[in-house]
User: Which sequence fits this backbone?
C-alpha cells in the first residue's frame, strides 16, 4: 500500500497530505514553522546526557577497554565499535584500535549495539502500541510526540487483512533521539512536583519561582518520559523559605468575597460598609491557596449579619424607584400620592444594590396601580384644549375664558395628556363659540339646556 504521507515544498512553506480516515480523501494542511521537538532532532546528543540516561541501569566502574575488547564482548565488529564511538562522542578520528575508551564506554556500546540489532529486526510499519513497547514510553506520549514531529499514522493493511493505524519504522529513531538529547529530570522538579511536596497550589509555587527569576531546563519527566519544564533544588528550597516566612494563615478571618457569600450581599455592599467602619481592622493574610489577600476579623461578619437581620428581606416591598418603573410613572407622581395617602406605610430595608432605602408594601403598589387604571380609562386629549391652552389660543386670560364658557353651551370632558395626567378639556369648536359671543354676554341670562 502506498504511503499516503508525503511532504512537498511550496512557496517556502511545507504542506502535509494526510489520510484522515480509511478511504477518505487526502486533505492539504499547512504546517507551521518547525516545532520545538523538530528542532531537537537537529541537535547532537551530548555524551554526558547519554551517560545520565544510562547511569540508573549500570554499576559505576573505572575499568576501561579498547575497541577490540568491546567488540569481542558485545559481538560486534571492531569497525562498528570505532565508528559508533566517534558518532556518539567517545572518541575522535585520531583514536587507534589499541587505545582505551573512557569508563562506561563498554556499557554505552553494549546499549547501542543491542538497540541497533533490535531496530534492525523491526517491521517497516509499526502500530502505536508496538512503538510504545519498543521505546518504553506510554502510547499517548508516542502519538503526541509523533504529531509534534509531523509524523502521522497511515492506514496499513496487515497480513491478516485488518486495517490498522501504523507509523513508519524511522519514527523510532526520532523518538529515541528526542529521549536522549534531553537530560533526565534527576533531582530537578516541576512546579507540580514542588506544589505536591509543599502542599501548596501550583499558582502560588509558580508565582514564587518566577518572581525569583530562577532558571529552568526542559528535561525528561520521571513519569511517562514527556518533556517538561524542570527547576533545580534551589527553587524548591526557595519556595519552602517563602512559605515559612510568609504572613499568618487566614484562620477564621474572611475576605470581602467570603463576607459577601456568607451574608448573601454583593461585594460592593460589603466594601462600602467596610470602607467606612472597619478599614483599620483589615490585615494581609494567606488564604487556603496560600495567596496573600486582605482579610477581616470574625466580628466584622457578626456586624454584617446583624445588619442583614435588622433590615431583613424585602418580601414584596418596593422602593419608589421600583414602583415608578413598574407603573411607568415618574418618581414625583408616585411620591406625591404616597405622601397624600400612604405616609405611615413604609419600612427601611435593603434595596437591590444592598443599600438601605425606604420601601412600601404591596398594598400601596396595588392602590397606585388601581388609580392608574382609572386614569388610563380616560380618552387621550387629542385635539381637545385645556383651559390654559384655550386662553392662549383666544388671547385672553383664563378667568375671561372661564366666565364665557357657560354661554357656549359646551361642557368640558375629563381627558389625559401625553404625560398621562387627567385634566378638563374642551372640544376645538369652543374657540369659535367663545369668540362669536357679544361683548355684553356676561350681562345676559345664561342659556338653559332647552334653549
Assistant:
Amino acid at each position: 500500500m502506498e504511503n499516503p504521507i508525503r511532504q512537498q515544498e511550496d512557496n517556502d512553506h511545507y504542506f502535509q497530505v494526510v489520510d484522515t480516515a480509511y478511504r477518505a480523501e487526502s486533505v492539504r494542511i499547512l504546517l507551521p514553522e518547525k516545532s520545538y521537538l523538530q528542532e531537537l532532532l537537529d541537535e547532537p546528543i551530548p555524551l554526558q546526557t547519554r551517560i545520565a540516561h544510562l547511569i540508573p541501569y549500570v554499576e559505576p566502574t573505572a575499568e576501561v577497554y579498547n575497541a577490540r575488547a568491546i567488540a569481542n564482548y558485545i559481538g560486534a565488529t571492531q569497525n562498528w565499535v570505532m565508528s559508533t564511538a566517534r558518532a556518539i562522542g567517545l572518541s575522535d578520528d585520531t583514536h587507534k584500535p589499541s587505545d582505551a575508551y573512557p569508563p562506561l564506554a563498554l556499557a554505552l556500546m553494549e546499549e547501542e549495539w543491542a538497540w541497533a540489532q533490535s531496530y534492525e529486526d523491526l517491521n517497516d510499519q509499526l502500530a502505536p502500541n508496538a512503538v510504545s513497547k519498543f521505546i518504553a514510553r506510554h502510547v499517548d506520549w508516542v502519538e503526541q510526540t509523533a504529531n509534534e514531529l509531523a509524523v502521522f499514522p497511515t492506514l496499513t493493511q496487515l497480513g491478516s487483512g485488518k486495517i490498522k493505524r501504523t507509523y513508519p519504522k524511522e519514527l523510532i529513531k526520532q523518538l529515541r533521539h528526542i529521549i536522549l538529547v534531553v537530560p533526565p529530570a534527576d533531582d530537578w522538579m516541576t512546579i507540580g512536583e514542588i506544589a505536591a511536596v509543599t502542599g501548596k497550589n501550583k499558582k502560588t509555587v509558580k508565582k514564587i519561582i518566577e518572581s525569583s527569576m530562577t532558571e529552568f531546563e526542559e528535561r525528561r519527566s520521571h513519569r511517562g518520559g514527556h518533556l517538561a519544564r524542570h527547576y533545580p533544588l534551589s527553587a524548591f528550597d526557595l519556595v519552602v523559605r517563602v512559605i515559612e516566612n510568609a504572613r499568618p494563615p487566614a484562620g477564621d478571618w474572611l475576605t470581602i468575597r467570603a463576607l459577601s457569600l456568607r451574608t448573601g450581599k454583593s461585594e460592593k455592599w460589603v466594601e462600602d460598609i467596610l470602607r467606612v467602619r472597619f478599614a483599620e481592622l483589615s490585615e494581609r493574610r494567606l488564604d487556603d491557596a496560600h495567596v496573600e489577600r486582605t482579610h477581616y476579623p470574625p466580628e466584622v461578619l457578626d456586624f454584617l449579619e446583624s445588619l442583614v437581620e435588622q433590615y431583613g428581606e424585602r418580601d414584596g416591598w418596593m422602593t419608589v424607584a421600583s414602583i415608578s418603573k413598574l407603573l411607568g410613572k415618574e418618581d414625583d407622581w408616585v411620591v406625591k400620592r404616597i405622601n397624600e395617602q400612604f405616609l405611615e406605610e413604609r419600612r427601611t430595608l435593603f434595596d437591590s444594590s444592598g443599600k438601605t432605602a425606604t420601601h412600601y408594601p404591596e398594598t400601596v403598589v396595588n392602590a397606585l396601580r388601581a388609580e392608574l387604571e382609572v386614569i388610563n380609562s380616560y380618552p387621550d386629549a387629542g385635539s381637545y384644549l385645556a383651559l390654559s391652552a384655550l386662553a392662549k389660543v383666544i388671547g385672553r386670560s383664563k378667568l375671561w375664558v372661564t366666565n364665557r364658557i357657560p354661554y357656549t353651551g359646551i361642557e368640558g370632558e375629563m381627558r389625559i395628556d401625553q404625560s398621562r395626567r387627567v385634566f378638563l378639556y374642551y372640544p376645538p369648536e369652543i374657540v369659535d363659540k367663545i369668540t362669536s359671543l357679544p361683548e355684553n354676554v356676561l350681562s345676559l341670562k345664561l342659556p338653559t339646556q332647552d334653549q
Notes: The first strand starts at residue 6 and ends at 10. The two ends are 115 Å apart (CA to CA). The mean pLDDT is 79.
